[in-house]
Amino acid sequence: MRRYSKTARLLISALFAALTAVCSFISIPLPFTPVPVNLATLSVFLAGGLLGWRYGTISQMVYLLLGAVGVPVFHNFTGGFGILAGPTGGYIVGYAVAAFLTGWILDHRKNPDRFSALALSMTAGLFSCYLLGTAWFMASSASALIPALAACVFPFLPGDALKIIAACILVRKLRPVLT
Prior knowledge:
Blueprint: H1 6-25, E1 27-30, E2 33-38, H2 40-68, H3 81-85, H4 89-107, H5 115-141, H6 145-152, H7 157-178
Antiparallel strand pairs: 1-2
Helix pairs in contact: 1-2, 2-4, 2-5, 2-7, 4-5, 5-6, 5-7
């Protein structure tokens, strides 16, 4: 995003915050976990992959701040600090960490457009989101590690792998347009 003014980069970051909100609305609740299936992590990977670490993180921080003050940007059109403080809050906060890590790894790669570099950076971002979210879930629900992983990580791995593949393809196609 080097050729854009700072104002344009911030505007694009705001659009990615809106994209994350829209992707969060597309959610499927699961009966065995409070964590819904949604497309938010896809937009997080796109933010980090297309905007880089700085503006990708800004986009997710804007999303978090909007939700924290009550704007209904989280799953099921919810918002408010109570959602962030609840059992799924760590995963939502983890979006900013995931966008940062995805973008930072790509910004420091020799060939950031290679599929393997994209997949590695997004997998690292996903792992950071899982780490923060699972620790938060365990603390807020007094759950042990294995039950927390069984409820909050393992069921989501296949879908998240598909989201990473889709994000890699989209970033490779869209990066020439945005950079």
